[in-house]
Design goal:
CATH architecture of the largest domain: Alpha-Beta Complex
CATH class of the largest domain: Alpha Beta
Number of helices: 11
Radius of gyration: 20 Å
Strand order of the largest sheet: 8-10-7-11-9-12
Bound molecules: adenosine-5'-diphosphate, magnesium ion
Number of domains: 2
Strand content: 15-25%
Largest sheet: 6 strands, mixed
Number of strands: 12
Structural class: alpha+beta
Distance between the termini: 37 Å
Order of helices and strands: HEEEHEHEEEHHHHEHEHHEHEE
Shape: globular
Length: 326
């Protein structure tokens, strides 16, 4: 259908059509289907994530960052599976054709796609409330995908990067933090929320090493609960061992815990590894260029226990974000 102002096809041609760079793309944008050639013997890993204005992003986000984030949250799912990105598609609903907005969105998307050596190979464009849905396609050798179901009692719990800054940024946007005190830090905080870096290289480096993995989109407590349920285990997390920025560490403890445990939008990897493999995990992290921290242990007793560095229980309601939750 036509989305007005130069039409749907003009819009696609102007912003979302570029010659494919990857030799794996046999056929890109322009036909009824795209054709992508995975490497021989590999399985496809597929994931979709949708961003809706007002739900997943604020109207204040620069379009370029929105384009980045829309792809980043999808690549993060491939990272969590230890899959290598191949290509992506983009389904877009637009209230109107705004070429400046679209150019920015495309720029952010292409930049991240290029950084990961993938092409945009197709999609769909329609008029409607602003909605961006990307599907990513990746590949992984049979049996090597990192799953949520592989955590075993005794495994150690690890997390990449730092947690909680995206949530802290949201608090700042909501006027819950004294902006004057944040000053220059606000831009950095905002970057954490608007331009997450998908940990694709780490996911690949953790193949054959991590027993389970998930990416942190809805907050550590909620996302870890998915792993625990799928694996039929429980865990204790040391909240003092959770990695955080100096800025978050300077906030009141209750706010720190909220941001670290139920923050959301971190897009770091949470993964489990059999004990005694610290050197290998740190080697993988070095290879991927991202720091990792050991922050807990998998146990047979179901449920999540949060303690401080002295082993004292830390109480709170750490439920993860649920769009249809109460
Ligand atoms: P069809 O009607 O067969 O579904 P369309 O006319 O919707 O195809 O799209 C024409 C071509 O443009 C297809 O190759 C489709 O994948 C691509 N396309 C449509 N929207 C987008 C978009 N937002 N980004 C990238 N490619 C797109
Ligand atoms: Mg179509």
């Amino acid at each position: 259908m036509s989305a007005g102002g130069g039409g749907e096809f003009g819009l696609i041609a102007r912003h979302f059509t570029r010659p494919a760079r990857s030799p794996r793309v046999v056929l890109g944008v322009g036909d009824d289907c795209a054709i992508v050639q995975p490497d021989p013997g590999q399985q496809l890993a597929i994931s979709s994530d949708m961003l809706v204005e007002g739900r997943h992003f604020l109207p204040t986000v620069p379009p370029e960052r929105l384009g980045h984030k829309a792809l980043a949250v999808n690549l993060s799912d491939l990272a969590a599976c230890g899959a290598e990105p191949l290509a992506c598609t983009l389904a877009l609903a637009l209230p109107r054709v705004d070429d400046d907005f679209l150019a920015g969105l495309a720029r952010g998307l292409w930049a991240l796609a290029e950084a990961h050596g993938i092409d945009l190979v197709g999609g769909d464009t329609t008029a409607g409330p602003l909605n961006i849905c990307i599907t990513v396609f990746g590949q992984v050798p049979p049996g090597q995908a990192l799953l949520r179901s592989g955590a075993r009692p005794g495994d150690e719990l690890w997390v990449s990067g730092t947690l909680g800054d995206a949530r802290l940024a949201l608090e700042a946007f909501r006027g819950q933090l004294p902006m004057a005190a944040l000053a220059a830090d606000f831009d950095r905080l905002r970057l954490a929320m608007e331009m997450p870096q998908p940990r694709v290289a780490l996911g690949l480096a953790l193949r054959g090493l991590a027993s389970s993995a998930i990416d942190l989109s809805d907050g550590l407590a909620g996302d870890l609960a998915h792993v625990l349920r799928r694996s039929g285990v429980g865990a204790t997390v040391d909240v003092d061992a959770l990695p955080r920025s100096a800025l978050l560490a300077a906030q009141p403890l209750a706010l720190q815990h909220q941001c670290l445990l139920s923050g959301g939008d971190d897009y770091e990897l949470l993964f489990t590894v059999a004990p005694g493999r610290h050197a290998e995990v740190h080697d993988a992290a070095r290879l991927a260029g991202v720091p990792v921290s050991c922050c807990g242990r998998i146990e047979t007793t179901p449920g999540l226990r949060v303690v401080d560095r002295h082993g004292q229980p830390v109480v709170g309601d750490w439920r993860g974000f649920d769009h249809f939750g109460a």
